[in-house]
Design the sequence.
C-alpha cells in the first residue's frame, strides 16, 4: 500500500524484488542504480548477514512525475532468498505495491523457483491481496547460462496469471530496465485508479 505524505505532497511506492537465493535480485538493483540518472537515485542501503553474500535489502528511491498533484517516489527492495530468512521476506513484502519475481532460469532451480513462487502467492493472500490483480512482473534471469529451461516451461510453472514477463541477464542489464519499467507503470496505473 502506497504511503502518502500530505505535508510533502508525496506518494511513496514500494517495489519488491522477490526470488530464490542467488537468482539475481541484488544484481538487478545494482544495475538499475548504476544505469539511472544520478540525480534521480538515492543512496543504496544494504545490510549484510554473516551467513549470506546477498543483500538483506536495498533502498533505491527514484523520483518520477506527479500523480494527482503528488510527487511519486519509488523504493526498490530485495528480499533474502535463502529459506531460513522467510520471516524477513514477509516483513519486506509488507506494504509492497508491486513485485518483480526474479526466477533463476537454470533447470536445476525449477523446484526452488516453484516453492518460492508458491510462498509469494501465499504471503500476498495473507496480506489480503488479490494475486490475480496485484501488479506482478516475472523476470526469467540468467538466460546466458548453459542449462536454462525454455521460456515456455517457466511460463507454464511460474506464470499462471500471464503477467508481463522478460528474459534477462541481470549482470549485463538485459531485461532489467524493461522489468522495472513495467513494474513502475503497473503501479502508476493502480494509483490512477484510486
Sequence:
Amino acid at each position: 500500500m502506497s504511503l502518502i505524505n500530505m505535508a510533502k505532497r508525496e506518494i511513496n511506492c514500494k517495489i519488491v524484488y522477490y526470488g530464490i537465493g542467488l537468482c539475481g535480485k541484488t544484481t538487478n538493483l545494482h544495475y538499475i542504480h548504476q544505469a539511472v540518472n544520478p540525480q534521480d537515485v538515492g543512496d543504496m542501503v544494504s545490510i549484510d548477514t554473516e551467513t549470506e553474500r546477498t543483500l538483506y535489502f536495498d533502498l533505491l528511491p527514484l523520483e518520477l512525475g506527479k500523480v494527482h498533484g503528488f510527487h511519486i517516489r519509488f523504493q526498490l527492495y530485495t528480499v533474502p532468498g535463502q529459506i531460513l530468512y522467510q520471516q524477513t521476506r514477509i516483513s519486506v513484502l509488507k506494504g509492497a505495491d508491486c513485485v518483480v519475481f526474479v526466477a533463476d532460469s537454470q533447470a536445476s532451480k525449477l523446484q526452488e523457483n516453484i516453492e518460492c513462487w508458491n510462498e509469494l502467492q501465499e504471503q500476498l493472500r495473507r496480506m489480503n491481496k488479490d494475486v490475480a490483480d496485484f501488479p506482478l512482473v516475472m523476470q526469467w534471469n540468467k538466460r546466458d547460462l548453459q542449462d536454462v529451461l525454455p521460456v515456455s516451461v517457466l511460463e507454464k510453472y511460474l506464470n499462471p496469471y500471464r503477467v508481463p514477463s522478460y528474459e534477462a541477464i541481470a549482470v549485463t542489464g538485459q531485461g532489467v530496465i524493461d522489468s522495472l519499467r513495467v513494474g513502475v507503470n503497473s503501479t502508476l496505473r493502480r494509483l490512477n485508479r484510486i
